[in-house]
Design goal:
mainly beta; Mac-2 Binding Protein; 3 domains; globular
Length: 279
């Protein structure tokens, strides 16, 4: 298999599509919770023109992205000009929508002539810089791959006790969040107490689970927010997916000696794709 993972720039390109899809993304910002707003429609990403764009519209995006409250709704391509389609213009959200696609606008692909060259792409800056996985998040860390561990059960987020968390559990969390390998597990509320409830059971991962919800739990324990667990992951990956309709699909590229290249499809199969999806 490794012999077939040859870095080439002119060859058959592998495209990978996974189950996690998203409808909105923030591009070219300094965190995943800030950037130029882009929406997915008809399998293609496009921008939003800033006419009528305000904090109410931005709040819907922040909520959809699990990024807290809207702080700013900059226009005039504050986060750089996009390219391709301009999908939405004159957006008018009432603030209760679960997704930006539900907000009123001029219609898909309809926009004022002044929007045509992406000089007025809308942006958003939200309050959170939390790295969200499907059932896990790291909060209040110095970067998106470190912070206080919180897990989702039902509709409620819980902090995890440091006495009930070990290296195997950390491996699952870092992998779920696309954050490489665990570097350090920290106790004693190293990243603050937060305001989540406390999870009262011990998590017992084997280390090969794809997400924390797959790990068994047992033994009720007593623990306070003074002893919640924090985690620092390496944040490093030498693989990425490029030019797909969402963050979990696209052309496979691998980094070698600080240079990115494509992967030949000669020996590529579903087993290799499954390994990549877990990373």
């Amino acid at each position: 298999m490794e012999n077939c993972l040859t870095l080439i720039f002119l060859s058959s390109l592998v495209t990978l599509i996974t189950a996690n899809s998203v409808n909105v993304r923030l591009v070219n910002g300094d965190s995943r919770c800030a950037g130029r707003v882009e929406v997915l429609h008809d399998g293609q990403w496009g921008t939003v023109c800033h006419y009528s764009w305000d904090l109410t519209d931005a709040a819907v995006v922040c909520r959809e992205m699990s990024c807290g409250e809207a702080l700013q709704s900059p226009g005039i391509s504050y986060f750089g000009r996009g390219s391709g389609k301009i999908w939405m213009d004159r957006v008018q959200c009432n603030g209760s929508e679960s997704t930006l696609k539900d907000c009123r606008s001029r219609g898909w692909g309809k926009h004022d002539s002044g929007c045509a060259y992406h000089n007025y792409d809308a942006g958003v800056r939200c309050s959170e810089t939390i790295n969200y996985g499907r059932f896990t998040r790291l909060a209040d860390g110095p970067h998106l791959c470190s912070g206080r561990l919180e897990v989702l059960y039902g509709n409620t987020w819980y902090s995890v006790c440091d006495a009930a968390f070990d290296q195997k559990d950390a491996e699952v969390v870092c992998r779920e969040l696309d954050c490489g390998a665990p570097v350090q597990v920290l106790g004693a509320a190293a990243f603050g107490k937060g305001d989540a409830q406390m999870w009262k059971q011990e998590i017992q991962c084997r280390g090969n689970e794809s997400h924390i919800r797959s790990c068994p739990t047992s033994n009720d324990i007593k623990c306070s927010q003074d002893n919640n667990v924090g985690l620092i992951c390496s944040g490093y990956t030498d693989l990425r997916l490029v030019n797909g309709p969402d963050i979990c699909s696209g052309r496979v590229e691998r980094q070698f000696l600080n240079e990115w290249g494509t992967v030949c499809d000669a020996c590529w199969d579903m087993r290799a794709a499954s390994v990549l999806c877990r990373q």
